[in-house]
């Protein structure tokens, strides 16, 4: 099928784990004629869950891109992971679409993943659709769930179709107003939508009040409906049963007839190098701008960069630049993805999702363009959760250090929430992820794909140091070695900044007592000292350093002398400024069976945690929200598993840094002193 930008729909299926996204994904592919027989998650035969880890764990880990041609529309569909452990791939996929279909389990109702994804989609200006799945299951109270969704997310949440025949079929209520449904009525639901849609336009509202709905053309209603989606004034609710197929064709019809195309959605937040926003337009004839939202290291194809075209047309043999690169690459092969199948195409127009292979400089969030006029353009960064769970590792077999490094680099390319850190002073490699499950999956992939096995142990906690007071420091560096000597003298003061403010270096030298060419050397010395810490060996942060006086010698003063003087004057000041150690405090969300709440809250309290609240879920589950020091949660996966019989799960996000208790600071300082004395 040939198509235009106006006939493209880009939709991501998202939602809490276990709501049936992948099963719905299969049902949509079946209804769209892409597959003849639906696979199942249990058998590992679905289009989206092809990775060995996905099959073994019976849930999605990565996002999967496919396409369907339906009712004259080309629908790009992305299945995403539901577990919070794999949010990196999910949030990346949402950056490539106009619409997020948040799937809700009709039995369990609103879960914390539902809230998180609805909030993220709203923040990014995406159109949102709520899809209630499992409508045919016993115990599903659909009327109560619609009321709960409206209470949680606002009265703009309105059904555009309704279940009938006890969930065996679904009837449209946007284009129709007559029919028998399981609850409410088509006439009532239709009227609510029309009332909501006409509010968006004063002229339309006037016509509607004067002459009724008949005065509005279908095109007027469609345009107003799309505007409502774009402005968050309407969140359609659809009903499906992925198991039986009820409502699946109707969901595709909603996508084709009502959801925004790439020319109608809110433009993505691109920014120029000078910080000015750049508005891209879905014009196939202008310069190319595309964003890479997914990297796949395929053992047969090589590195595959999956991108969304925002403007311009990419053709086979096009010359494209990556970010502000000087050297273009040639698009030798251009692919459209159908799960793990790559279909070669001639061109990709605005709104298309496509891929190129074997471009080593390709990376996640790269901007592809065909003119140096678009150099230094970036897409506003996504708000990824900070990977706080860490493991230090070494290769199990000697001689595999380089192989380990290459494998970790490949894995980090694919997942923006998987981070690799190399600590030179400890000769330690640390990987960080969103949970123990996240890291287990990544290390198992490393073993399967690259043949590297590792031994792991807990890493050092990422403590930081700062100061609690003001102080001044001074050092004179003087060295005579027979010939030209070294001389530099520095006076400086230090003062604390607000938490999270970072570092400021101020030049307040008067009268040229220190020539300007030596100020960078003083700052370099200060930064060297900050990197290695002052009382426990951890980096210093959140402070201001002001150099206000000093001396130099016209012959003996050199850069190295002022580096040393700046470093030692800084350490002199820090020692008088009440230095303290800071520890990372994380937001913890723990989902558990309700009967375990006493054990879990008691356990958290014993870890210096502050309970911030609880959130009851359907199905007897409770989500506990707390803040706790990361250092106290090293063994938490094992403890939680023991307390809940394996049914508990948790996620961490960095919140802020706080001063450690005095006893902890004393322990850390004493442990560091022998190393400091050796230096």
Commentary on this structure:
By secondary structure, this protein is α+β, with helices and mostly antiparallel strands. It contains 16 helices and 35 strands. The strands form eight sheets. Strands 16-15-21-12-13-20-17-18 form an eight-stranded antiparallel sheet. A seven-stranded mixed sheet has the order 2-3-1-4-5-9-6, sandwiched between helices. Strands 27, 32, 33, 34 and 35 form a five-stranded antiparallel sheet that branches. A hairpin with a 6-residue loop joins strand 15 and strand 16. The longest helix is centred in the last third of the chain and has 18 residues. The chain starts with 7 loop residues before the first strand and ends with a helix. The model has no long low-confidence stretch (mean pLDDT 91).
């Amino acid at each position: 099928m040939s198509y235009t930008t106006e006939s493209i729909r880009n939709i991501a299926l998202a939602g809490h784990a276990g709501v049936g996204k992948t099963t719905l994904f299969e049902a949509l592919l079946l209804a769209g004629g892409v597959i003849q027989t639906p696979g199942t998650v249990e058998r590992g035969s679905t289009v989206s869950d092809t990775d060995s880890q996905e099959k073994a764990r019976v849930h999605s880990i990565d996002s999967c891109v496919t396409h369907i041609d339906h009712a004259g529309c080309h629908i790009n569909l992305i299945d995403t992971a539901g577990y919070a452990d794999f949010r990196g791939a999910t949030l990346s996929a949402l950056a490539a679409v106009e619409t997020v279909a948040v799937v809700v389990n009709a039995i369990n109702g609103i879960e914390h993943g539902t809230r998180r994804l609805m909030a993220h989609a709203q923040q990014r200006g995406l159109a949102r659709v709520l899809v209630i799945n499992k409508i045919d299951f016993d115990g599903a109270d659909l009327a109560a769930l619609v009321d709960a969704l409206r209470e949680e997310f606002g009265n703009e949440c309105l059904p555009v179709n309704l279940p009938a025949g006890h969930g065996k079929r679904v009837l449209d209520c946007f284009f129709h107003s007559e029919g028998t449904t399981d609850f409410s009525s088509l006439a009532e639901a239709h009227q609510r939508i029309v009332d909501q849609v006409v509010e968006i336009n004063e002229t339309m509202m006037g016509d509607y009040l004067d002459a009724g709905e008949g005065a509005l053309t279908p095109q007027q209603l469609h345009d107003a409906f799309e505007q409502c989606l774009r402005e968050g004034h309407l969140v359609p609710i659809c009903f499906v049963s992925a198991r039986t197929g009820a409502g699946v064709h109707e969901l595709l019809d909603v996508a084709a007839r009502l959801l925004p195309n790439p020319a109608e959605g809110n433009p993505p937040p691109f920014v120029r190098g000078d910080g000015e926003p750049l508005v891209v337009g879905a014009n196939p004839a202008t310069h190319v701008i595309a964003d890479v939202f997914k990297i796949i290291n395929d053992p047969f194809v090589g590195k595959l960069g999956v991108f969304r075209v925002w403007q311009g047309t990419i053709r086979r043999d096009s010359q494209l630049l990556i970010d502000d690169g000087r050297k273009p690459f040639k698009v030798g092969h251009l692919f459209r993805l159908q799960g793990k199948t790559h279909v070669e195409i001639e061109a990709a127009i605005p709104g298309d999702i496509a891929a190129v292979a074997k471009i080593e400089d390709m990376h996640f969030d790269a901007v592809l363009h065909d003119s140096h006029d678009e150099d230094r353009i970036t897409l506003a960064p996504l708000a990824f959760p900070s990977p706080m769970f860490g493991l230090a590792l070494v290769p199990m077999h000697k001689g595999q250090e380089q192989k380990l490094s290459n494998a970790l680099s490949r894995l980090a390319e694919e997942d923006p929430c998987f981070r690799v850190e190399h600590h030179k002073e400890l000769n330690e490699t640390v990987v960080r992820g969103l949970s123990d499950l996240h890291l287990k999956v990544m290390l198992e992939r490393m073993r399967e794909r690259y043949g590297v096995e590792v031994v792991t142990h807990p890493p050092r906690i990422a403590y930081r140091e700062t100061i609690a007071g003001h102080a001044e420091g001074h050092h004179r560096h003087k060295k005579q070695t027979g010939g030209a000597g070294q001389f530099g003298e520095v006076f400086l003061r230090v003062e604390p900044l607000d938490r999270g403010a970072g570092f400021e270096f101020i030049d307040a030298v008067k009268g040229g007592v220190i020539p300007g060419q030596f100020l960078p050397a003083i700052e370099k010395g200060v930064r060297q000292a900050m990197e290695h810490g002052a009382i426990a060996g951890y980096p210093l942060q959140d402070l201001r350093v002001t150099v206000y006086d000093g001396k130099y010698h016209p012959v003996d003063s050199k850069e190295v002398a002022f580096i040393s003087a700046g470093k030692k004057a800084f350490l002199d000041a820090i020692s008088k400024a009440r230095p303290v150690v800071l520890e990372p405090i994380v937001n913890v969300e723990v989902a558990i069976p309700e009967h375990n709440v006493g054990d879990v809250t008691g356990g958290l309290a014993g870890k210096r945690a502050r309970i911030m609240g609880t959130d009851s879920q359907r199905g007897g589950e409770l989500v506990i929200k707390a803040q706790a020091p990361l250092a106290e949660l090293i063994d938490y996966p094992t403890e939680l598993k023991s307390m809940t019989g394996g049914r508990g799960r948790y996620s961490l996000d960095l919140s802020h840094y706080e001063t450690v208790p005095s006893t902890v600071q004393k322990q850390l300082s004493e442990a560091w002193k022998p190393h400091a004395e050796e230096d």
